[in-house]
Amino acid sequence: MTDLSCTAQDASSSSEGKGKGELKWWQLSLLGIGCTIGTGYFLGSGIGIKQTGPSMVLSFLIAALGTYIVFHFLAKMTTADPQEGSFCYYAGKAFGRWARFGCGWNYWSTKILIMGSQLTALSILSRFWFPNVPLWVFAAGYAVLSIFVVLLGTQWFDKIENVLAVVKTAAIVMFILLAAAAIFGWIHGGSNERPGFPGSAAEVFPGKFPAFWSSLLYAFYAYGGVETIGLMSIQLQDKKDAPKAGKVMLTGLSILYMLSIGLAVFMVQYTKMNEKESPFVTALSSYHLAFFPHVFNGAIILAGFSAMSASLFAVVNLLVTMSKDGDAPKLFKVKLNFKQLPLPSLALAAVGLCASIVTALLLPGKIYEYITTAAGILQMYNWSFIIIAAFKILRIRMRDVILGITGLVLLLGAVSGTLVKPDIRVGFFVSLIMIVVIGLVTWIMTRWWKKHKVST
Hints:
This is Amino acid permease. Keywords: Amino-acid transport, Membrane, Transmembrane, Transmembrane helix, Transport. InterPro entries: AA-permease/SLC12A_dom. This protein is mostly helical. It has a single domain (about 5-450), classed as Amino acid/polyamine transporter I. The protein is built from 19 helices and no strands. α7 (about 95-125) packs antiparallel against α15 and α8 runs antiparallel to α16 (about 345-360).
């Protein structure tokens, strides 16, 4: 998933962005690229490659189109009516309080799962150096450290955010340059089994359509965080530049993603890819580059940890906003005298992290695949609601209707593709259980509001 390191700014962005902003469109584009690249791409893409091979490049192209459609509608709603609640507010505006309530808790659940995915990814990457240490030990360590960072305060995120964005982007560029050097023979080594450029449809789609279908979710997951950029579009100097900023951002990301994935599957058999090692490390593992795995791993861990800590901060403040709106118990908006942090909200988020640690203890072999799949599906539910709410709120032309329907079809394809492969199907049922629980609670609350004549 993507990297949500920019979400720590959500509350301030939404409250300050109603006037004239300070960002130029190209600045928002660069910020978007830095905010989106994360462990979901560096590690999660390996799951998709394992499913479908070279056609993963096409998966990223399709996911870019679907992501742009979501950004397009969110940016339109945000610039027309900037609100702190972001797309949860728009869901309520479109369909009533039940939609805002359900959307908010679904988004909170998604964030918790994404943090669990990031936590597991960091643990897997750390085992590169310490293979005998149990996964849950690293997960517990990173969780405690992340909570400690949030307790200290998050002001430092603003200062180093651009540096971390450069680190993540530089890691991809470093791989592209090294891979190109290896292909041209400037770096010695390599495997004699290098697949090279596929020469037929069978080589592009080795698992045929079902495998390609199942890979779509992981391509979409790598673009996760676009909802944050849609929110930040209210800080543009010219709000009309939001679609252009989104196009440039997604074009830049797509080029980086597809080029690096294409080089990876060109250099090593896709069957050697797995969720336990970054596909880029696997691709260059047979070359005499002793420094690369360590530098690359370190860069991903640094960026991933900052993203997880920022996500934790964001999910804590999200619950505070929901509490102020009456969509969460009043307890969660209480700020205690420790740096004025909402400790009850932080405690609930910590419980979610603990659940990831326990799961890592019980299912060390498949946890990353399961959590990433479930988080990606919940993210698709959020994105679908953005499009549906936009249909209700905005005055849209036929072009937008066609665009929105196309986006919904692509998102549905990404979700349904997880049912094709048994090894990732568990993630679908995890997300389905969470949606049923949220739906049931929403129904109960709707009846309670009606009984007590609370405004809906």
